[in-house]
Amino acid sequence: MKIKNTYLPLYICAALAAGIVIGGSLGMSTEDKFLAKNNSRTKLNKLIDFIDSEYVDDVDTDSIVNVTVNSIMGQLDPHSVYVPPSEQVQVAENMRGDFIGIGVNFYMYKDSVAIIKPVENGPSAKAGLKAGDRILYADKTKLYGRKLPSDSLFSSLKGVEGSQVELTIYRKSENKKIKVKVKRDVIPLKSVDAYLMLNANVGYLKINRFAATTYNEFKKGLLSLKKSGATNLIIDLRDNGGGYMEEAIAIADEFLKDKQLIVFTKNKKGNIEKTYATKKGDFEQGSVSILINENSASASEILAGAIQDNDRGTIVGRRSFGKGLVQREMDFNDGSAVRLTVARYYTPTGRSIQKPYAKGDEETYFKESESRFKNGELYDKDSIKVADSLKFKTPKGKIVYGGGGIVPDLFVGLELEHGNENTVYLMQSGIVGNFVFEQLDQDRKAFNGMKFADFKVKMVASDAYFNKFQKFLSNNGLDLRLIGNKAIVKRYLNAEFARQLYGEKYYYDIVLKEDAMIKALLKKK
């Protein structure tokens, strides 16, 4: 199956691996602290030096070191990992929550860099760049007709804060080339995708990861929703693989009363550190619900566990990933890093929700969620296997379980949610963004000046884009008949059109209208 390149947001870098909890970082000097304290460790250093100086052929000893480090980490747990320099920059930006660049969401369309949408109030938007513009040159570097890899494109457009790049643009809508000078600036990497009111008193907030800026983004959204009348709050943590546990703790503190336990950790020496809620909290009285699924992990599970174990709200969805380990990061001088598990964390009732793992068998561990399809637990709550020996009780007497993820209070199965899960996985993939961009590129003027309410009426009434999308898939080698899931396909197509035309919030405005977890929760209320 051949699918065109998915569009690439310049302001979104490497995705987080499933299940990250980072509890701080070791300083640069720590590298020296761990070097050669005994003969076994000295042996490795001497071997590398011996190969470097005496081996009969030239050898890249750096690559040998990387292999060795990876092998060592592979003997620990699935979440202790080595991150090479080529990946660490992007991971660090993603976790920091910003980077320096020009601020465009772009797509490699045919042989050129096509702008899907400039970041709102970003450098490119301020310089007058528009959706549909093609970037031909960055200064004197040619960007079209070369099939450049993504990292080369990023390096051409990113740079030092305040530095300037001259872009040569082809504006299709006016059929002309223009030169635009753009001053690079800090571009936020949002971890809160959207927040909006679902009805007069229910607010919704989507968190995609826990980065250094997440709590501040969350607080802004929370206060806005409260101002709009929200007395019920839904926090969507589906597919959120984690991040900084401190950010999840700070968010939990907004809902819990003073001195309620949020989480505690235990290290190899048996030292226990407990974290409690403080007197502050802007939503200690309203109703709280957390949406989770099989890809909600680590910091997401810390937040969900704190809400569930304190009888503070309702957990909705499917059993979460099951990751109860805390990592600390150590940086090396070459730009690489090691993320090492230093403790286990426990929910307020004392649960460890870490699922079992075998050392050195990461593939089985990370594919465990696939077994949930086979045993039926993604479709039926009764298929979830939990050990009676891992029962815990909340203060109000509710039974909760440890040993492999957070089991929801209100189960919503995959079949009920999607009808055909393969279709929805497709509709949530980048190929939909590609299709929508290409359709807009052909006739962007058809939507000029159209109000969102009128847009929704127009899109619901017509099957034109549904039919074109079916043909688009066939042309890309995907033989998938969509007619049986027409309503689902149209909903996601319309939502993606809304995202590219109006913004992220409008995507969720459309998608959530028929979201099964949302509907089940609102029906319960």
UniProtKB/TrEMBL annotation:
Superkingdom assignment: Bacteria
UniProt keyword Transmembrane present: yes
Keyword Lyase included in the entry's annotation: no
InterPro entries: ClpP/crotonase-like_dom_sf, PDZ, PDZ_sf, Peptidase_S41A, Tail-specific_protease
Keywords on record: Hydrolase, Membrane, Protease, Serine protease, Transmembrane, Transmembrane helix
CDD domains listed in its UniProt record: cpPDZ_CPP-like, Peptidase_S41_CPP
Transmembrane regions listed in the UniProt entry: 7-28
PDZ domain sequence ranges: 88-143
SUPFAM superfamilies: ClpP/crotonase, PDZ domain-like
One Pfam match: Peptidase_S41
Family that this chain belongs to: Belongs to the peptidase S41A family.
Protein name as it appears in the record: S41 family peptidase
Organism, scientific name: Flavobacterium frigidarium
Lineage: Bacteria, Pseudomonadati, Bacteroidota, Flavobacteriia, Flavobacteriales
